[in-house]
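Marked as duplicate of an earlier ticket. Keeping the data here for the record.
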Amino acid sequence: MQKRRDFVKTLGAAAAAGLASAAEGGFSFESRWKGSRVWVGPEYWANPLQNWRVEDGEAIAKAAAGRTLHLLTHQAAAGEGDLRMQVTVRPPKGDAGETWAGFELGVRGGLPGYQHALVHPATGVKAGLRGDGRLFVDDAVSADTVELSAPVTLRLEASPDGAVTLSAGAVTVRKSVPPEELTGNVALAAQAPGRPGPETSGVEWGFRDWKAGGSRLAERPE
């Protein structure tokens, strides 16, 4: 019985430490991808389902137009506040071409509510790492490049005034957008030029340790 009590005590302490770490980092959401399957999890909406999968704790997508992974339990609310996201991206082996991987935020559809934006996105701010190693936020592109021979941690910060900053190590790019354009769904993306359809580029990007937080991020577990 003593060993069992010690185990439960240790487990509780570890869980508390994990929650404290998340709070200290300013993130209210952290991905928990485990195993290997063609289904990322109940709190995500994959576009389309068959182009996203989990392998050994990593979400992997074949880059193509419209390839996004929406977070269902959190959205960027209207009003003032900041928003932060972070994810570690594994670049594809070989030539990434014109593909890119990163974030979409402020994703909204033609109708009110987060549901329409899942399958009929009309607006959104794109920010990510291109296949040539440059960071971008919409049409703003970094002057310097990121080394693609190893996983890259992308850090995004959106301030209350609409300034969106994306960084990876010492490389940074910044663009100011109207604050209201940040309201909506948040998602990961693995994109390629073209129109949304069943075809893919065949180029695969991997994602690990997606985190999100900030005073503007509304949590709706239901």
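See parent ticket for discussion. The two ends are 37 Å apart (CA to CA).
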